[in-house]
Prior knowledge:
12 helices, globular, 16% strand, alpha/beta, 11 strands, binds flavin mononucleotide, 43% helix, 363 residues, TIM Barrel
Amino acid sequence: xxxxxxxxxxxxLFGANCSGGLAVTTVPERWDASWENNRRLAVMAEEAGLDxxxxxxxxxxxxxxxxxxxxxxxxxxxxxxxxxxTSRIMAFGTVHVSLFNPVVAAKQIATADLIGQGRFxxxxxxxWNRDEFDMLGVDLAEHEDRYEQGQEWLDIVTRAWSCPTAFxxxxxxxxxxxxxxHPKPHKGERPLIVCAGNSPTGRxxxxxxxxxxxxxxxxxLDDVSETxxxxxxxxxxxxxxxxxxxxVAVICRPTRKEAEEYFHYxxxxxxxxDAVENMVEGRGLNKPGQSAEEKAQIRxxxxxxxxAFPVIGCPDEVAATMRRLSEGGVSALAVGLVNxxxxxxxVRDEVLPRLERxxxxxx
Length: 363
Ligand SMILES: Cc1cc2nc3c(=O)[nH]c(=O)nc-3n(C[C@H](O)[C@H](O)[C@H](O)COP(=O)(O)O)c2cc1C
């Protein structure tokens, strides 16, 4: 089985396939998700020893002044390009269950995996933003049904990858006949599977199926161990051992003051307020009874990194927060930066060596 475990704490870049990346901001240096920028970034990340490039699965922008994420690369074709342009780093595809026929997806993934000689990984998502599905003319099933469909989808995909001969499948959502795909993924191995979700059903789905559960740390650092222990326990209930993946927005500057000022500049003063509102509303994060501070915090997180946990500070503080996340049971961080090409070199030069010294990553 494939694992993402070369380092105690795996690291990758998240969201570079979409305009604006994770930061919902109008600042002029916001991310331009051109192919050339993506290719250069993947090569830079690989040379720095990062483990993966993870795309957002987006089909439509969030509106606002920048139409945040309005330009996005489809993730399976993006991953194929990234894998062809690199030789060591892993590239994920973020795949929406109901938008891809499972047999077509199984073949697309096998193709990408062979291009990357075993470096493709799947981030499976069951559906989120209704307007995206409307744009594609596909019904977004009710929440629980999405995961039921997801289970059938994954059963077909994994069988298509492994079954040497034709098979049939009869489910509620899919009925396939004499399904027989070749080539199989690299060396006949199943690609790494990550499933993203926050709800109990989403987590249960990941516990049953994923090698790693991709979850959002909504609470503070003190609650990380409790969250990860609960996720691991759910997986243990199915006799499985899984890793925990989470998303972080990294703002690293020579001093904490500079880092906080930069966060305030891009995520508060220059937040793309309408796009933030559309994101918060679309995800159902507006709940009755929220205090003004809770509302502001949700918006800061949305603008700061698409809901990601903010890691703000000087290199020592950023490395120390990453250590706390690791000690709390997080095995991989999917990192957003306002401008990946401009901001990653500082993280590479200042944070990565500290993580090595802390024993979280090998040199
Ligand atoms: C960390 C994280 C990353 C996600 N990334 C994407 C994404 O790129 N595209 C997408 O459509 N949904 C994404 N999702 C949404 C989930 O797949 C899921 O639809 C959403 O969390 C709602 O389901 P839930 O109520 O089970 O959590 C992400 C969710 C989490 C927690």
